[in-house]
TrEMBL record:
<feature type="transmembrane region" description="Helical">
    <location>
        <begin position="6"/>
        <end position="29"/>
    </location>
</feature>
<keyword id="KW-0813">Transport</keyword>
<dbReference type="GO" id="GO:0005886">
    <property type="term" value="C:plasma membrane"/>
</dbReference>
<feature type="transmembrane region" description="Helical">
    <location>
        <begin position="141"/>
        <end position="161"/>
    </location>
</feature>
<feature type="transmembrane region" description="Helical">
    <location>
        <begin position="41"/>
        <end position="61"/>
    </location>
</feature>
<comment type="similarity">
    <text>Belongs to the MntP (TC 9.B.29) family.</text>
</comment>
<keyword id="KW-1133">Transmembrane helix</keyword>
<keyword id="KW-0464">Manganese</keyword>
<dbReference type="Pfam" id="PF02659">
    <property type="entry name" value="Mntp"/>
</dbReference>
<keyword id="KW-0812">Transmembrane</keyword>
<protein>
    <recommendedName>
        <fullName>Putative manganese efflux pump MntP</fullName>
    </recommendedName>
</protein>
<keyword id="KW-1003">Cell membrane</keyword>
<dbReference type="InterPro" id="IPR022929">
    <property type="entry name" value="Put_MntP"/>
</dbReference>
<dbReference type="GO" id="GO:0005384">
    <property type="term" value="F:manganese ion transmembrane transporter activity"/>
</dbReference>
<keyword id="KW-0472">Membrane</keyword>
<feature type="transmembrane region" description="Helical">
    <location>
        <begin position="67"/>
        <end position="85"/>
    </location>
</feature>
<dbReference type="InterPro" id="IPR003810">
    <property type="entry name" value="Mntp/YtaF"/>
</dbReference>
Length: 191
């Protein structure tokens, strides 16, 4: 497997993390920059770790994880996204009940637990890539590092894009972000 192929795999794997980062940036638009910058770190780390786990544990649990990866991803992202849609829709219907209701959802905080769940949910497919890396003559450290770095860089770009688009979406940012998470979960389920 060539280095270019590894970068392409990294870009493909980072697509979900990219979309979730944009969604988080919409919803948590007044979050501290340091907290938002944890997204590239978390998503990159998990996208790099899961191929390692897939490589070493692939024979033991690959079929089980592959069989239920879509369902797990849908449940995690569906619950988070559904809650975001519900809260966003409530804010749109009753703007007088939401404090400081303007171009973003004020006071919402991105928790470490949410980042952890989102990181795992978006990286489950990287486990399967790790299983396939066993079959190819590939430098595992290079592949995992490249996938992690590619994802982190894509998430940094998503932060910049999300800041721009979040202001354009205004009050609908939370609903849009939740719908993106649900769509990613459904896509994972359908394969």
């Amino acid at each position: 497997m060539s280095p270019i192929e590894v970068v392409v795999i990294g870009l493909a794997l980072s697509a979900d993390a990219f979309a979730v980062t944009i969604s988080n940036t919409f919803v948590y638009c007044d979050e501290r920059r340091s907290r938002l910058l944890l997204q590239p770190l978390f998503f990159g780390a998990f996208q790099g770790l899961m191929p390692l786990l897939g490589y070493f544990l692939g024979g033991l649990a690959a079929s089980l994880i592959e069989a239920y990866a879509g369902i797990v991803t849908l449940v995690i992202l569906g619950v988070i996204g559904g809650n975001m849609v519900r809260e966003g829709a409530l804010a749109l219907r009753h703007p007088d009940e939401v404090e400081a209701h303007d171009a973003c959802v004020r006071g919402k905080r991105l928790t470490l637990a949410q980042l952890l769940f989102q990181s795992v949910a978006t990286a489950i497919d990287a486990f399967a890539v790790g299983v396939s890396l066993r079959a190819h003559a590939v430098n595992l450290a290079f592949a995992a590092g490249t996938i992690a770095l590619t994802t982190a860089l894509c998430c940094l770009a998503a932060l910049a894009i999300g800041r721009r688009l979040g202001h354009l979406l205004g009050d609908r940012a939370e609903v849009a972000g939740g719908l993106v998470l649900i769509a990613i979960g459904v896509k994972a389920l359908l394969g």
